[in-house]
Amino acid sequence: MSEVQFDCVIRGGHIGTAVDEFDADIAITDGVIVAIGRNLAAGTTEIDATDRLVLPGGVDTHAHIEQLSAAGIVNADTFESATTSAAFGGTTTVVCFAAQHRGMNLMTVVDDYMALARKGAVIDYSFHLIISDPTDVTLKEHVPALVGKGHSTLKVFMTYDLLNVGDEKLLDILLAARQNKALVCVHAENHGMISWMGKRLLEKGLTAPKFHAASHPRASEAEAFNRLITFAEFIDQPIMIFHVSTAEGVGVIRNARGRGVKVFGETCPQYLLMTAEDLDKPGMEGAKWMCSPPQRAEADQEAIWRGLALGDLQTVSSDHAPYAFDATGKLLAGPNPTFKQIANGLPGIEARLPLLFDAMVSKGRLGLAKFVELTATAPAKIYNLHPRKGSIAVGSDADLVVWDAKRQVTLTDATLHDRTGYTPFAGRTVTGWPEIVMRRGKVIVRDGKVHGAPGSGAFLPRAGGWAAEPIGTGPAGGALGTA
Ligand code: DUC
Ligand code: ZN
Ligand code: ZN
């Protein structure tokens, strides 16, 4: 072997990026990729990737971690458990939430979540700021200060009793984002339709988890998307619409993008791989599948895949929102809650990549390059983490995953490492599994064991970047000047 020149060389693998695939070695020094080529000189450590794929670490830009819900419960994971679970699944970067509830000081909220992440995170992280109390102080003082510190996405809810901000405040938030060059991410469903439907279903005694699906009418998604896009266009502020679940929703986004509105779209594995029928289980069991928006129909799955293929939607995130199936989570209101009393959310931070690898690479839907694009490169670009994250390139962080493309794993509740206690993906057999996971040049998962210390994940400060840049028409059609 030649003289040692690098900290580590991953040798003999088949590299996949969002555009190319090729056979090459990867050399790493000081946590960064320093060379990609054939027959590279030796590293102090060597990883044999013969017969293996080497892909960028996953970038999951929608995960609720150690987060306080509107109902006052903290979800089942800590930063340590959620990011360990992410690492086992091949994800090396997460963008999670700092959640302001009404009456809370946004600066304090961010400090608190930063402290939790600093203590526990095993992978690198950044935050979206949930704004549910958009006071003058929040928008005029705290948002500028926090964007200046690298927190450059604001997240807004158009539904949930205690979180939704209403139309006028939504416009305020869009304008504040524009003034501070931040992107706005939105949970977009029509609140009135959901609460109206919920009341009528309960009045009829239709309380089981499966009625959660009917209580979120599909039209509530398209309506909220249309209203939100109208607002975004009016303010000239780019937006990201989270967790698109319906064919109509994809159509609304396609239409808006077609006429030049700067709107991005995200979906999640649960909308690609599940339907509302998954909620129809005996007793309370269906609660494990409850998330918002709910899973829909097979025709929606097909429309969402097409939206991903055509570029109408750009990212597939997990929306990891883990609630245990007990009195700390899904059954907080007792053993027989109505669907209205059950926390919404599923765990998915670890299963996301294996499920999508299986669907896209092993089963061939859209292929390897699109898998890397949707799960790593595009989210890194939209949230301004690229080229440090989401790529295999000289100068990028050595966040790399060695995949065994042939290994078959049947997911069970015990397979995964989060603290939910179950996975709604149990029973699915996937082909393709992340074998070795490296974050900034350090192996953090190998041989089924975690090697990353809690707190070794780094905060990733982000400016808004190109995705957050307005088109330039000016807010309110120019009527407010440059505002
Ligand atoms: N829905 C949300 O709005 N947030 C967390 C998870 C979920 O299902
Ligand atoms: Zn949401
Ligand atoms: Zn969410």
Walk me through the structure.
This protein has helices at residues 79-88, 106-120, 136-148, 166-180, 191-203, 211-215, 218-235, 247-258, 269-273, 298-310, 352-362, 367-382, and strands at residues 4-16, 21-29, 32-37, 42-48, 53-56, 58-63, 91-99, 124-130, 153-157, 183-187, 239-241, 263-267, 315-316, 400-410, 429-439, 442-446, 449-450. Helix 4 (166-180) links the parallel strand 9 (153-157) and strand 10 (183-187). Helix 11 packs across helix 12. The chain has 12 helices and 17 strands. With 483 residues, the chain is α/β, with parallel strands linked by helices. Strands 1, 2, 3, 4, 5, 14, 15, 16 and 17 form a 9-stranded mixed β-sheet that branches. The chain has an 8-stranded parallel β-sheet with strand order 6-7-8-9-10-11-12-13. It is globular, with a radius of gyration of 22 Å. One zinc ion is lined by residues 62, 64, 319, 321. Dihydropyrimidine-2,4(1H,3H)-dione binds at residues 64, 187, 291-292, 319, 321, 344-345.
Could you tell me the mean pLDDT? 97
Total helical elements: 12
The H-and-E topology, N to C, reads as EEEEEEHEHEHEHEHHHEHEHHEHHEEEE
Q: What structural class do you assign from the helix and strand content? A: alpha/beta
**Amino-to-carboxy terminus distance:** 63 Å
**What's the overall geometry?**
globular
Uncertain stretches of 5 or more adjacent residues: none
Q: What hetero molecules are in the model?
A: dihydropyrimidine-2,4(1H,3H)-dione, zinc ion
Note the beta-strand portion: 15-25%
The number of E-state strands comes to 17
Radius of gyration: 22 Å
Taking the sheet with the most strands, its summary is: 9 strands, mixed
User: Which bin fits the share of residues in helices?
Assistant: 25-40%
